[in-house]
Design goal:
Rossmann fold, single chain, binds NADPH dihydro-nicotinamide-adenine-dinucleotide phosphate, 11 strands, globular, Rna Polymerase Sigma Factor, Chain: A, binds 1-deoxy-D-xylulose-5-phosphate, binds manganese (II) ion, alpha/beta
Length: 400
C-alpha cells in the first residue's frame, strides 16, 4: 500500500542540508510535495530551486529580494508566491496544509520558525541544533504539549535514535541504556598543537575531512564546539545527563554514534558520511526509502579508530559541557557568543584559538537566568551578542 503524500516545508532550502533534503524528496515524487522553500539572501539560488521543485511559497528575508523573486517567478510562468520576513518563515512552518518541516536554518535565526512548527504539532526534522541548545526544556515541553513528532537529523543524534528502543522516553536507565557514545571526527585539526592552531585560516577550518557542510558548522567542527552543541542536544533529545554522554573521537566518521546497554551490548549505526541517510530516515520514518547513498563498503573502510578528545587544545567542548551543567540561559549565551566568534573568525578578524576565549569571556560576563520563558531566552541571546561584540573589540585592541 502506498503512503499518503506528505506536504513539506524546507527552512534553509539553499543550504547544505536543504540541498540534500531536496535531493531525497526529488527521488520520491509519489511520497512528497513541497509547500515552501526558504532562504535568507540567496535569491538566485532560491529562484533556481523554485524552477526545479515548484513549491507553493518561497520566502526570503528582505522584501526587496522577495519582489525581485516575484518578478522572475511570474516571468517564468510559475505560480509560487514570494514572501518576506520572519513572519512568513513562521507561517510556512505552521501552515495547516504542511505535514513535515525540515528545520535547516543555521543558528539562532532558526529558533522561532522551528518552535512554530513544533507548536503546530508537525513532524519536525531537526537539523538546526542551535534552536534546541538555546531553548532545551521549553522546546522539549512544547514537543510533548503539542504532540509534535521530533526526529533528529544531526547525524550523531539520528544514529542514537536508531540505536535506542522505539519507545525510549522516560529516561535512559528505564530502557537499560547506560551511556550514549557520541562520535566526533576530530575535525580538520585533529592532533594539532595550540601553537599550530593559532595560525589556521578560515579556508583550512572549513575543509572538513569527511563531511561537506555549511561554513558555520564546519568551523564548529574544527573547534569541537559542534561536539559541545551536540552534547547539549543529546541531553535534551534523549533525556540524558551530561555524564551519560561520552564523546569518542572516530576520525573515519563511519560509525555515526552508539548506545551502550547494561548487559554490555553496544549498538552502533554505520554508513557513508552523507546527510541524505538521516534526512531520508526522518522523512520516511518509520519506513525506509532510497536516499541515493552508496552502500557502505567495509573492505574499503578497512579500519575504525577511536581516541579521547583533546580538551586542552579544543576547550570549546568543555565550555559547552559547563554551560549544560550551569543550566538556564547558559547554553543560549554559549551559542550566541559562539555565533559572534565564528563570524569574526570567518571574517578574518579573530584568530581560531580566540574563539574559545571570546566564548568564555562572554560566559563570565552574563548571569545565568531561568530559561522557562521564550522572551528571556531571546533577550539573553541579544544581550550575549552585544556583550560578545564589546569583548571582541577589546580583544582586538589588546592584540594591537
Ligand atoms: N550541513 C550538515 O551536514 C549538517 C548541518 N547541521 C545543522 O543544520 C543547520 C544548517 O546547516 P547547513 O545546511 O550546513 O548551513 P548552510 O549555511 O549551508 O545553510 C543555511 C541555510 O539557512 C539560511 N539562513 C541563514 N541565515 C538565515 C537567517 N538569518 N534567516 C533565515 N534563513 C537563514 C541560508 O540561506 P542563504 O543561502 O540565503 O544564506 C541557508 O538556506 C545548522 O544548524 C547545522 O548545525 C547538522 C548536521 C549536519
Ligand atoms: C554531519 C554532522 O552531523 C556534523 O555535525 C558532523 O558530525 C560534523 O563532524 P564532527 O563535528 O564530528 O567533526
Ligand atoms: Mn553532527
Amino acid at each position: 500500500m502506498s503512503a499518503a503524500v506528505q506536504c513539506v516545508s524546507v527552512l534553509g532550502a539553499t543550504g547544505s542540508i536543504g540541498t540534500s533534503t531536496l535531493d531525497v524528496i526529488a527521488r520520491h515524487p509519489d511520497r512528497y510535495r513541497l509547500h515552501a522553500l526558504t532562504a535568507h539572501t540567496s535569491r538566485e539560488a532560491l529562484l533556481a530551486l523554485c524552477q526545479r521543485h515548484r513549491p507553493a511559497v518561497a520566502v526570503l528575508a528582505d522584501e526587496a529580494d522577495a519582489a525581485w523573486l516575484r518578478e522572475r517567478l511570474a516571468a517564468a510562468g510559475l505560480d509560487t508566491q514570494a514572501r518576506a520576513g520572519e513572519a512568513a518563515l513562521v507561517e510556512v512552518a505552521e501552515a495547516s496544509e504542511v505535514d513535515v518541516v525540515m528545520a535547516a536554518i543555521v543558528g539562532a535565526a532558526g529558533l522561532l520558525p522551528t518552535l512554530a512548527a513544533v507548536r503546530a504539532g508537525k513532524r519536525v526534522l531537526l537539523a538546526n541544533k542551535e534552536a534546541l541548545v538555546m531553548s532545551g526544556a521549553l522546546f522539549m515541553d512544547a514537543v510533548a504539549t503539542h504532540g509534535a513528532t521530533l526526529l533528529p537529523i544531526d547525524s550523531e543524534h539520528n544514529a542514537i535514535y536508531q540505536c535506542l528502543p522505539a519507545e525510549h522516553r522516560g529516561g535512559l536507565a528505564r530502557h537499560g541504556v547506560t551511556q550514549l557514545l557520541l562520535t566526533a571526527s576530530g575535525g580538520p585539526f585533529l592532533g594539532w598543537t595550540p601553537a599550530q592552531l593559532a595560525e589556521v585560516t578560515p579556508a583550512q577550518a572549513c575543509a572538513h575531512p569527511n563531511w561537506s557542510m555549511g561554513r558555520k558548522i564546519s568551523v564548529d567542527s574544527a573547534t569541537l564546539m559542534n561536539k559541545g552543541l551536540e552534547l547539549i542536544e543529546a541531553c535534551w533529545l534523549f533525556d540524558a545527563r551530561p555524564e551519560q554522554v561520552q564523546v569518542v573521537v572516530h576520525p573515519q566518521s563511519v560509525i555515526h554514534s552508539m548506545a551502550a546497554y547494561s548487559d554490555g551490548s553496544v549498538i552502533a549505526q554505520l554508513g557513508n558520511p552523507d546527510m541524505r541517510t538521516p534526512i531520508a530516515y526522518g522523512l520516511a520514518w518509520p519506513q525506509r526509502i532510497d536516499a541515493g547513498v552508496e552502500p557502505l563498503d567495509l573492505f574499503q573502510v578497512a579500519r575504525l579508530d577511536f581516541q579521547a578528545p583533546d580538551e586542552m587544545a579544543f576547550p570549546c567542548l568543555r565550555l559547552a559541557r559547563e554551560a549544560m551543567a550551569a543550566g538556564g540561559t547558559a547554553p543560549a549565551v554559549l551559542n550566541a557568543a559562539n555565533e559572534v566568534a565564528v563570524d569574526a573568525f570567518l571574517a578574518g578578524r579573530l584568530p581560531f584559538t580566540a574563539v574559545a576565549e571570546l566564548v568564555a569571556r562572554v560566559r563570565d560576563a552574563r548571569p545565568v537566568l531561568p530559561a522557562d520563558e521564550l522572551a528571556t531566552i531571546l533577550d539573553e541571546d541579544r544581550q550575549a551578542r552585544q556583550t560578545a561584540q564589546a569583548i571582541l573589540v577589546r580583544m582586538l585592541e589588546e592584540t594591537i
